[in-house]
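Extended Data, record DUF4856 domain-containing protein
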Amino acid sequence: MKKVLLSLFVVSALFQSCSNDDDGNVETKVTAPSTYEFTREGNSTVSYSGQTTRIKMADEVVTALKVETNTEATIDAMFAHVENANDFSDADLNASDKSVRSKVAASTDYFSANTTEANEIKADFDTWIEEQVNDVFPSWSVTAEVGVAGALQQAGGGTVRYINAKGLEYNQAFAKGLIGGLMIDQIVNNYLSSAVLDAGTNVEDNNNAVLEEGKSYTTMEHKWDEAFGYLYGAEADATNPVLDVDQFLSEYLDRVEADEDFAGIASTIYDAFKLGRAAIVAGEYDVRDAQAEIIKGNISVIPAVRAVYYLQSGKNKLGVDDASAFHALSEAYGFIYSLQFTRKPNTTLPYLTKTEVDAYLAQLMEGNGFWDVTADTLDTMSDEISEAFGFTTEAAAN
């Protein structure tokens, strides 16, 4: 896997284009800056405040799913926030016209012509909220057992996990599902899509430095920045990202980077974002598109690696520490859900379709769910996911 990531980076670093002018052939190179900093007439042209806002909103929604006194209406309102509603602890979030729900399964490439599926996906998140409030919250003080929702404590006096009757933590399904349904879908299937980057007069406007009204950036520059923001929007300084600064894509890119089998993925993604943005400034759209494909492929690997990691972690604790096993399997459930939003580079296809993902999730929930699931089932699922994404179960299980 490291060799694959390295080869992608080498390709991106060496990528160049040739163009003609009146004097003949002129070779042009795009040089990426050392950090993600771009200016025009002394003003920064980088802007992704909407993505920062949605990351903060998503964080509060997930936190609300762990407070048993919250009502379904309260959490629903946070998820589908409307401007000036008093839903959050942060006054700026309350004043915002942004919401999390509106951007779930909302990419141009995957869902603009597939609203039925988009609505089904949004409904999954609504259902997780509903069932957390109506099934799990009332059983907060009940000891969970087969077929009974409630609390289960990890071994050695560890964390108490709150699960449904089949062992699933809805808050984990929700949080990890958002990584795909919001962050990954918006990055790889929306803002890095040529349908979005090149929409309308974007190419002509970018070539002629026609800026958005009252702004310092072109529309194309801004769309690329919005993709960047769904990964780096919670960073205190995105010119020097440290990762693990939110509980979504940032955290799990950090986890994958820490696995020696995937080391280098973080710099590969960041460098591709820098070079692609520089290519937009230079009007070198072939270079831009090459970087977009590198980002799509590498970001898509993140939920797959973590899905396999948690399937294997859960398997190893079954029957020994069921609370820990079910917690890991709940994270795996959410990451598997996210796989339908991934993108094979240079295609319009996910690595795994919604049908395939739904089949895996149904298999995990068969019978009594995690109480019944077997090691063989988890190994088979791990191997199939690993094969689809081009790595091994052993590499991801570290």
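Summary. The chain is about 55% helix and 5% strand.
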